[in-house]
Structures are given as C-alpha cells and as structure tokens.
Amino acid sequence: xNKELAELLFPNILVTPEELEEKYPVRELKxxxxxxxFGPSPTGFMHIGNLYGAxxxxxxxxxxxxxFYLRIEDTDSKREVEGAKELILNALEHFQISYDEGYSKxxxxxxxxxxxxxxxxxxxxxxxxxxGKAYPCFMTEEEISEIREGQELRKEMIGIYxxxxxxxxxxxxxxxxxxxxxxPYVIRMKSPGDMHKExxxxxxxxxxxxxxxxxxxxxxxxxxxxxxxxxxxxxxxxLMRTTHVIRGDEWVPSFPKHLQLNQLxxxxxxxxxxxxxxxxxxxxxxxxxxxxxxxxxxxDYYQQAGIPVEGVRLYLATLANTNFEEWYLQNKDKTIxxxxxxxxKMPTGGTLFDMEKLNNICRxxxxxxxxxxxxxxxxxxxxxxxxxxxxxxxKEKERLIAFLDIERDGKRPRKDIATYQDVKKESFYIxxxxxxxxxxxxxxxxxxxxxxxxxxxxMMRFSTxxxxxxxxxxxxxxxxxxxxxxxxxxxxxxPEEYKGHIGDICEMLRHVxxxxxQTPNLYNILNILGKQGIEKxxxxxxxx
Length: 544
Hints:
Blueprint lengths: L1 H8 L7 H7 L11 E4 L9 H16 L3 E4 L13 H11 L6 E2 L15 H13 L3 E4 L3 H13 L18 H9 L5 E4 L8 E6 L3 E6 L6 E3 L7 H11 L4 E5 L6 H11 L5 E5 L2 E5 L2 E4 L11 H5 L4 H12 L3 H7 L20 E2 L2 H13 L3 H15 L1 H9 L1 H8 L15 H8 L4 H4 L16 H8 L8 H14 L2 E2 L2 H6 L6 E2 H13 L7 H21 L2
Parallel strand pairs: 1-2, 2-3, 9-10, 11-13, 14-15
Antiparallel strand pairs: 4-5, 5-8, 6-7, 11-12
C-alpha cells in the first residue's frame, strides 16, 4: 500500500534517492576538514548576527582546508523581500567573507537556491511515504486551529501527534477519495518518538544538552509541494555533505526533530554548534540585539558609520573566541587568518555586543596602518559619503598624510581614530577651508587664558627648519624671559614665583592654532601649518 500511495502522491518524481546520492558523492577532503555553510533566508536585510555566524563558519572551514558554501534558503516565498539576495551577496563581499561554492558562484553540489531543488526534496519525501515513514494529511486550518486551542486549554504539548494525527493511518481508498475531491494536503513525517524518552545533543560549544524526544508529526512538504525549513535543511546538509552546522542557539529546541528526520532518512547527522546570541547592555539590563532598537543590528550601519571592514572582522573574532583579543594585541604582525579558532573558546551564554569595545579594536587596527594606507582607506569612504572632503583630501594629500603620520611609529602609537569619520573630525583644523568655516572654532578654549603678545613674540623666533629639540629649546628660553617656569617641576616647587610653566605656553599655541585642547604632537602640527598659517590663526584668534 505504501508504494502505491507514494506513486499516487508523486507520479512525476522519477529520480531516486540512490541516484541523488551518486550525483552528490562524499567530498574528497583531508581528514578533519570542515564543510560548513551559510544558509540565510532572503526575507529581509542582513544583520550582524547573520554575519557573525557566517564569519565563524567561514573561518573554521578555511583553517581546516575544508569548504564553506552559500545556500539561499528561500522556501518561504510569502516572506521573501525583493533584492534581499543581492543584499546578502553584497554584505559577504563587503566584509570579505568569501565562499568556495554556492549561490551565484556555482559548484558541484548545487543548485544552491532551495526553490530550485523541489524535485530533490520530493524524491526523499516519496521514499519516506514508500517506507511508511510519512503520510498525506488533509486536515484543514480550522481543524488544526481547533486542536491547538484545546491543547492550550488542557496545557498539553502543541502539535499534531498521537490521536491528534487523525490522517496518520488513512487507507489508500480514503486518500484517493480526498485527491478526487481536490482536497489540499501536506506531507507529514510519521514520528516514531516517545514523549517519555529523551535524547542528547552533543553540542560542540555548549556540551551535552538533554532534550525531550520529538513526537510531533512535523510537516515536511507544504501544500504547494515546497519543503519546510526543517526538512529542506536536513536533506541539503546531507547531500551537500556538510560536516558542521554552526547556527544560533534559538535552534536548540528544534534539534530533536532534525535528529529524527536524519534517522528516518537514514542520514548520518552533522555535528552541531549553537552560537550564543548577541546581546546588549542597556540601563543595567542585558537584552538581545534588536532590529527595531539598535542601528548596529543592520550590517549597512557599519559601512555608513565609517567603521572599517577589518575592524568589524576583528571584533567578530573577539566575540567568537575569548582568547582572540589577547592574541591580537600580542601579535602585531599577524592577521585573523593566522589565528586558530576553537569551539572550546566560544562563549556558551549571551555574547555582549559592545560598540565601545568595537571602537577600541578599530583604534588599534588604525594605529597599525601606515599613514598612506589609512589615507587610501579613508578616501574610499569619503568619495562615497562626503565628496567635498574627498576633494580636499586629494588636493591636500601630502598635508593629510603628514598629519596622519604623527606619532604613528613608536611604542605607543596614537589611537584617536576609531572610524573613517574621525579622520575629518581629528584633522579638520589643518585645512583652512574647514577651520575658518567653523561657526565657533574656539568653543573648547578659555580665551582669557591666552597671552597673545607672548605668542607673537614666539613667532619672531619660529622656524620650520628647527628640529623638535631646537623648537622646544626656543620655547624654553621664551618661558624664562617671560616669567614662566622652564620646567613643570620648577613651577610645582615654587608656583608663586611664575606666571605659569612651559607647558602652558605650548597649550596656548595648541589652542590658538587648532581650537582643540587635545591634539597629536604640537611640533608636527605647527610644521604642517607653516609660519604663515600659524600667524594667520593668531590674527584670526585676536578678532574673535
């Protein structure tokens, strides 16, 4: 009867599971190689959680000389968003997460778009019906809703199982009658589960997790013949020869049904690793990142905010393995590709997504770049988001590179730049066209503390030909002549004897020429501005 039923339900499915197994053979890879995948649904924008999972899956495959592939899981056509596939591809390309095979690239295990694999799923569904492990269910939405309401009232498990699975043992004649009446139906797996038994998920991150055995007769093919997520991903992971499934821990409760589907189909299950969710601290409480509340949830945010791609990747690595940050700080000449990721070092609880931590990692990343490289990366950003500043950058390339090069080499390189936006924010005062456009460039400064005659006297002695030592010596002499202590130590010992100390003169210069209380090395800035530029700033300050 089961074979007749299978032919009745799937008369046009001629391909067999055996033929599919031959078409998609076990991959010839070295022992220990991972085959991982990224399987997004094109139902909206790419978010940082998607990217996090893809980054981990990609890294583990690459370090084991395995395969990382992209599979688009588009079985939910009602929720599909136009252009979402392109957003997925663009995000992966932007964040340099390359895949070996998959959607838009091809490969021997395709198609990699689930909507193009309908015949494959139906071939396996047909085999399950043949073996008495699946059946057609003609229950209406109203009948199912009524059962659910009763289960909720009685506080029972929700679903179609046991005596609620009224179509589980329909005769061939009853099925034929339904088909004759054109009654819509789904295909359900016939669960062999026992609600009194438990199974163990050997999770590679969380360890062993005990879960109740699945007893629900889950839908595997919907009324339109398209598979459910649960069925499609089990079939695909098997045929694409996936070894490790890395996914969010919201899927842990689904493991029993996935295990059972593998068992019913005769597949060897993949190894599973469930990633802790990305969380955020707000008002002293921890909550999951939200697409409604948190702009950083969308991957588009990072590009627009000027956060470098490598900075995001470094932060994802820091989230992925608890020992990565220390390793990165200790290995200045190494890249992410040199680090070995381990499931044992992955967090088991919620992973706090901290924007300030991300900024700090970006500051370290920028501090290790050459001034030329930082200039080029920044220029690409400004050509897209601020064309007028990009024009200034190109016109004043040498000046900006000289500014970016200040305090770059040394034991403690400067870390004032966390985003590309900071390049303009930190350097604006070296460009006259930006400095003089500011409505109030001296809003940070206490103007009454500036001794203009002293600065004018200093300019009589200033020369861009002086070394830093010569420059400082001139200020020292000026300090002594003008009633300022030539050292801070001398001032602290007898403050009543002096107007101030040498540092105060330097700060006056800094404040007048930059409008800032903090800048990189003043000597370098003065040389970038040049004598005429400094004198112009002093005259401008006098008029404020």
